[in-house]
Amino acid sequence: MSEFSGPSDTCPDGGESLDYYGCEQVIAEVWTLLDGECTPETRERLRRHLEACPGCLKHYGLEERIKALIATKCQGEKAPEGLRERLRMEIRRTTIIRRGQ
Ligand SMILES: [Zn+2]
């Protein structure tokens, strides 16, 4: 299926920040956010990746939700329970899909 060929095909290569901060790490970082940690560094990395690599999370349909999560968490608020749970499930599902390829 050419439509689902993985984020590495949709991510621009050679971007300065993408060299060391790839899509895999973005997903891992989102897990950290869900567990309650959000440093300014994390937020900045995620934000920059989303800007530089629009195909990445959009590919998973998670972009808007993750942006909402970042906005919420980084203001020191608790992410709404519903958002947390939905993200957990969707990230788990997409991670499983990718590993199964
Ligand atoms: Zn990406």
Q: Uncertain segments of ≥5 residues (pLDDT<50)?
A: 13-18
Number of strand segments: 0
Overall geometry: globular
Termini gap: 11 Å
- Quaternary status: single chain
Give the count of structural domains.
Answer: 1
Please give the share of residues in helix.
Answer: 55-70%
Main sheet, how many strands, which sense, barrel?
A: none
Mean pLDDT reading: 76
Strand residue percentage: under 5%
Brief description of this entry?
With 101 residues, this protein is mainly alpha-helical. It has helices at residues 7-10, 23-34, 40-52, 54-60, 63-73, 81-99.
Tell me about this structure.
The chain has 101 residues and is mainly alpha-helical. It has one domain (23-100). It has 6 helices and no strands. The chain binds zinc ion. Zinc ion (ZN) binds next to helix 2. Zinc ion (ZN) is lined by residues 7, 11, 23, 26, 49, 53, 56.
Features:
single chain, 101 residues, mainly alpha, 0% strand, binds zinc ion
